[in-house]
Amino acid sequence: MTLNWEQVIVHAEDPAGLGRWWAEALGWVEVYSDDDEFEIRPAPDVTPGLDFVRLNEAKKAKSRLHLDFRPEDQAAEVDRLLAHGARRVDIGQGEQPWVVLADPEGNEFCILGQRSA
């Protein structure tokens, strides 16, 4: 049996708004949208993607799953995402080589530093 990773589901109060935020942040494209769902991918036929699905309640606690990103320049990417509407969050990480940010609906994600050789 083979499994192919299709997408990550992200519950959102505003699927289109949050999906557009992430599409712009990642440079991805919209592949599907209706009133309750907004899906983005790196390219139309490339998976996995992110599928934002309406959930009519606010986020209540630390996310149990989050995304990690490793940019070429951590400081520049953090600055870019903060200017785009992300915010720094403290989830108890202490002093670490990564930076924890949250998207406009409070979903945490990390911007990692350089990979150790």
UniProtKB/TrEMBL annotation:
Segments forming domain VOC: 2-114
CDD domains: VOC
PROSITE patterns to which the protein is assigned, alphabetical: VOC
Classification via Pfam families: Glyoxalase_6
Name of the molecule in the record: VOC family protein
Taxonomic path: Bacteria, Bacillati, Actinomycetota, Actinomycetes, Kitasatosporales
